């Protein structure tokens, strides 16, 4: 199977044609969240980015095995083998079991992803459920001479690895520069070099999350889980490894070193990284007071927000920018995204009401071809949305009578519009009631039934009934607009 899809490979620093080893199958591993807090705006961008890639590869005809992990052990506070485990620290503060914390925030993450219409991955492994695989990988790395054990901990020997392989090839770091600029941290005396990283950490007596190992009771290092779980579910060589740009170093760099040290070759053929979200030009962070959870966005409860924003507004906002560019959050940008989304959804509804003509004055085939060309060019969602919004204008022109389409072209346009906007880009009309497609269709049909009764009441000059239907629907959040052909409605 062939595809024109080109992705920017962080490893080669250029666009490469995506050609999976076992076409039409594709394997993709994406680093998921560390579940010690509510999902925030920074979690939304990689989730939407790789959901889009998952959807688009599926649209192209690939059978995709998408693995996204949950980190529930081993991620220490400063990402450098020091401090408390993030989940253990949260559990200590809230006086709960660590797995209670992990479960609570995993559930919160899943709820937010569902709201953003992010499809669940094919497999979602947890670090704590793959201790056996991680211990086995540590053994392999030790046996090949790229790690050392000291006082019950096992550390990766970066200097020994660099003599045979290139450490730093993903991030562009040079080991000699790191050796010059890295200082020794307190509590890191067990390491031969401060830039070595933990594969397995000895558990202190008070450490709650611990497992038996050949080196004593302990827990795995943060980087190890992804190497172990990706190889378990995707094999020693797979197609795409993805994640946020902030994970490139040290996390992904260490993953490469571990996999090469254990297997003798790279695991992932392509590395894809999404860029960061900033807020009014600043990096998001709790210390800056601009840290916004997704729940706060959906409810408008954060002090920086002037209103609540729907999950689909957030998704549309993220898709407006290329995934490798910085995306700056502001109320103005989200309000603009909200208006754009509303125009798009309104055009989708108008498609069903277009009146066919004997001839077409527009080439409807350009919608899908233009959007595919944009997405084939390194998932350029910004250009895909530009093409889609051009067709929003065209649909409105047909509706107004300035352009015409045949019945066949209306049917094709409706199909392609749905394919791009809803199936690939993953947008949806959140105004419809929950409860599945049957519930949504029923809600729409009931509203249309009431509005048709209202039209009959108006035709019979029963204005009291007509006004009551409209006012009651308005009270329920349904906005009604009378037109020359009947009516239009939307749910606010």
Structure in words:
The structure is a single chain. This protein has 492 residues and is α/β, with parallel strands linked by helices. It contains 16 helices and 15 strands. The protein has helices at residues 41-59, 86-94, 98-115, 131-143, 158-164, 175-181, 224-234, 248-263, 294-299, 311-319, 331-351, 365-376, 381-400, 407-424, 436-459, 463-475, and strands at 6-9, 14-17, 25-30, 63-68, 147-150, 153-156, 197-202, 218-220, 238-244, 268-274, 277-279, 282-283, 327-329, 478-483, 486-491. Strand 9 (238-244), helix 8 (248-263) and strand 10 (268-274) form a beta-alpha-beta unit. Helix 11 (331-351) packs across helix 13. The protein is elongated.
SSE topology sketch:
Blueprint (H helix, E strand, L loop, with lengths): L5 E4 L4 E4 L7 E6 L10 H19 L3 E6 L17 H9 L3 H18 L15 H13 L3 E4 L2 E4 L1 H7 L10 H7 L15 E6 L15 E3 L3 H11 L3 E7 L3 H16 L4 E7 L2 E3 L2 E2 L10 H6 L11 H9 L7 E3 L1 H21 L13 H12 L4 H20 L6 H18 L11 H24 L3 H13 L2 E6 L2 E6 L1
Parallel strand pairs: 3-4, 3-9, 9-10, 11-13
Antiparallel strand pairs: 1-2, 5-6, 6-7, 7-8, 11-12, 14-15
Beta-strand residue percentage: 5-15%
Largest sheet: 4 strands, parallel
State the helical fraction.
40-55%
The domain tally reads 3
Q: Give the strand order, joined by hyphens, for the main sheet.
A: 4-3-9-10
Mean pLDDT across residues: 91
Contiguous low-pLDDT stretches (5 residues minimum) are 433-440
Q: Per CATH, which architecture of the largest domain? A: 3-Layer(aba) Sandwich
Structural class: alpha/beta
- Describe the global form: elongated
The CATH superfamily of the largest domain is identified as HUPs
Radius of gyration, in Å, reads: 26 Å
Q: And the CATH topology of the largest domain?
A: Rossmann fold
Q: Mind telling me the CATH class of the largest domain?
A: Alpha Beta
Counting DSSP H or I runs of 4 or more residues, the number of helices is: 16
- Number of beta-strand segments: 15
* Straight-line N-to-C gap: 44 Å
């Amino acid at each position: 199977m062939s595809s024109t899809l080109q992705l920017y490979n962080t490893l080669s620093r250029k666009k490469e044609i995506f050609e999976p080893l076992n076409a039409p199958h594709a394997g993709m591993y994406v680093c998921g969240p560390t579940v010690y807090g509510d999902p925030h705006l920074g979690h939304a961008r990689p989730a939407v980015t790789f959901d889009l890639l998952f959807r688009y590869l599926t649209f192209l005809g690939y059978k995709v095995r998408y693995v996204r992990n949950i980190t529930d052990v081993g991620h220490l506070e400063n990402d450098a083998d020091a401090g408390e485990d993030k989940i253990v620290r949260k559990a200590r503060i809230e006086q709960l079991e660590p797995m209670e914390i992990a479960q609570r925030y995993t559930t919160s993450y899943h709820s937010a992803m569902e709201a953003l219409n992010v499809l669940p991955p094919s497999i979602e492994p947890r670090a704590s459920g793959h201790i056996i695989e991680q211990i086995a990988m540590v053994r392999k790395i030790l046996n090949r001479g790229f790690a050392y054990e000291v006082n019950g901990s096992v550390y990766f020997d970066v200097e020994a690895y660099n003599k045979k392989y290139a450490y730093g090839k993903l991030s562009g770091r040079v080991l000699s520069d790191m050796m010059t600029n890295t200082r020794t941290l307190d509590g890191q005396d067990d390491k031969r070099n401060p830039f070595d990283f933990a594969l397995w950490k000895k558990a202190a007596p008070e450490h709650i999350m611990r497992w038996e190992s050949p080196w004593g009771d302990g827990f795995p290092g943060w980087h190890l889980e992804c190497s172990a779980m990706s190889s378990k579910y995707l094999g020693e060589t797979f197609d795409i490894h993805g994640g946020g740009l902030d994970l490139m170093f040290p996390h992904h760099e260490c993953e490469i070193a571990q996999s090469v040290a254990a297997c003798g070759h790279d695991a992932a053929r392509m590395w894809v990284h999404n860029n960061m979200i900033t807020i009014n030009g600043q990096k998001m962070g709790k210390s800056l007071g601009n840290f916004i959870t997704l729940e706060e966005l959906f409810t408008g409860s954060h002090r920086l927000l002037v209103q609540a924003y729907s999950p689909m507004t957030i998704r549309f906002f993220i898709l407006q920018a290329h995934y490798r560019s910085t995306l700056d959050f502001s109320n103005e940008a989200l309000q603009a995204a909200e208006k754009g989304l509303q125009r798009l959804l309104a055009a989708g509804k108008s498609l069903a009401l277009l009146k066919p003509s004997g001839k077409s004055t527009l080439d409807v085939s350009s919608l899908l071809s233009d959007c595919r060309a944009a997405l084939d060019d390194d998932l350029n969602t910004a250009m895909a949305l530009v093409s889609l919004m051009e067709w929003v204008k065209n649909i409105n022109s047909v509706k107004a009578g300035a352009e015409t389409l045949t019945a066949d072209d209306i049917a094709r346009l409706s199909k392609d519009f749905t394919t791009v906007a809803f199936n690939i880009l993953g947008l949806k009309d959140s105004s419809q009631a929950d409860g599945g497609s049957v519930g949504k269709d029923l809600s729409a049909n009931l509203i249309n039934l009431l509005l048709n009764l209202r039209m009959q009441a108006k035709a019979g000059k029963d204005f009291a009934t007509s006004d009551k239907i409209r006012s009651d629907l308005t009270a329920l959040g349904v906005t009604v607009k009378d037109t020359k052909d009947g009516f239009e409605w939307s749910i606010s």
